[in-house]
């Protein structure tokens, strides 16, 4: 049996699922946040089941980390599947008003159903859910217009649970729901690790950095060469095209860091995560060219 690249600590998954379900019980609307660099890998396959008949607003955060043309590709892909993606940059407060409006519109449907049954209207109750570190707290803070929830670069900082009112029409659970890990899909797990959207997991930086180079090389896009040449080659001085990801990390280590492969792997991961390599997606809509 081969060792998986990503290992989660036992116990966390069941606990995360339990508290997520507790949070979902209390709300009418679910704001599902994904990382726009990996919109498929930051989808948990059980979300539709957990959300059930509640309204869901799909938020693709970190829109500053992809190009407008990639954003357009995803918009079309989701629309073809009957979904409306709302792109946000929660760090700089972009796209937030549209998300609030969508949550409110979903609430209006809830109040219509209440009034059909002779009940009085009430504020719509919402929760923000998503994988660790995708920007849930930053989004909540932007929706509130002030800094209430700790937002940090470290994965897994979200802790407390309170209701907060963001307008007369919307109440929000200030502690976001954290999606449990996806054990079944190591490729998705690698992408979560690359983007640092993985929370408490252990992994080998060198394997994850090598996977990043391989994913970038295999991007199914006419822009792929452009991404590669602009990012990897110009930053590290070595053309990745003829090399595997692993060979590339070693070549860069020899070229720049006296053979220190671990340091090189960390640097490449950090450069990608902080946007230093440019606005690069790790996933593109399947079957688009
Ligand atoms: N570039 C960029 N960075 C963002 C964006 N949104 C959030 N961040 C950054 O991503 C990091 C994680 O954001 P958080 O809001 O703490 O993420 P979270 O999902 O609440 O994280 P957990 O509490 O770990 O589950 C922080 O450093 C944010 O500043 C965005 O739209 N663009």
From TrEMBL:
Pfam families: MMR_HSR1. Keywords: Cytoplasm, GTP-binding, Nucleotide-binding. InterPro entries: GTP-bd, GTP-bd_ortho_bundle_sf, GTP-bd_ribosome_bgen, GTPase_MTG1, P-loop_NTPase. The keyword Isomerase does not apply. The keyword Nucleotide-binding applies. It is found in: Cytoplasm. Residues 126-186 form the G domain. Its main location: cytoplasm. It comes from the Bacteria. Gene3D superfamilies: 1.10.1580.10, P-loop containing nucleotide triphosphate hydrolases. Belongs to the TRAFAC class YlqF/YawG GTPase family. MTG1 subfamily. Required for a late step of 50S ribosomal subunit assembly. Has GTPase activity. This is Ribosome biogenesis GTPase A.
């Amino acid at each position: 049996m081969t060792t998986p690249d990503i290992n989660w600590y036992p116990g966390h998954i069941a606990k995360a699922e339990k508290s997520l379900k507790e949070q979902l019980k209390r709300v009418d609307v679910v704001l599902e946040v994904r990382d726009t660099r990996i919109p498929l890998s930051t989808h948990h396959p059980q979300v539709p089941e957990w959300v059930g008949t509640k309204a869901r607003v799909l938020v693709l955060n970190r829109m500053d980390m992809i190009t407008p043309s990639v954003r357009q590709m995803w918009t079309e892909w989701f629309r073809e599947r009957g979904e409306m993606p709302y792109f946000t940059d929660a760090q700089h407060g972009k796209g937030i008003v549209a998300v609030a409006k969508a949550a409110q519109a979903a609430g209006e449907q809830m109040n219509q159903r209440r009034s059909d049954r002779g009940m009085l209207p009430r504020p719509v109750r919402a929760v923000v859910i998503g994988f660790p570190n995708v920007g849930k707290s930053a989004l909540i803070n932007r929706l509130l217009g002030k800094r209430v929830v700790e937002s940090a670069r470290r994965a897994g900082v979200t802790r407390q649970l309170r209701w907060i009112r963001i307008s007369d029409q919307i109440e929000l659970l200030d502690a976001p729901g954290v999606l449990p890990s996806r054990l079944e899909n190591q490729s998705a797990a690698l992408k979560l690790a690359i983007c640092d959207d993985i929370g408490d997991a252990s992994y080998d930086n060198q394997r994850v950095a090598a996977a990043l180079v391989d994913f970038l090389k295999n991007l199914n896009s006419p822009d792929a060469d452009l991404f590669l040449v602009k990012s990897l080659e110009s930053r590290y001085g070595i053309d990745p095209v003829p090399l595997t990801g692993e060979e590339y990390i070693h070549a860069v280590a020899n070229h720049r860091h006296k053979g220190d492969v671990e340091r090189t792997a960390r640097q490449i991961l950090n450069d990608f995560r902080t946007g230093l390599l440019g606005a690069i997606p790790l996933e593109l809509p399947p079957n688009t060219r």
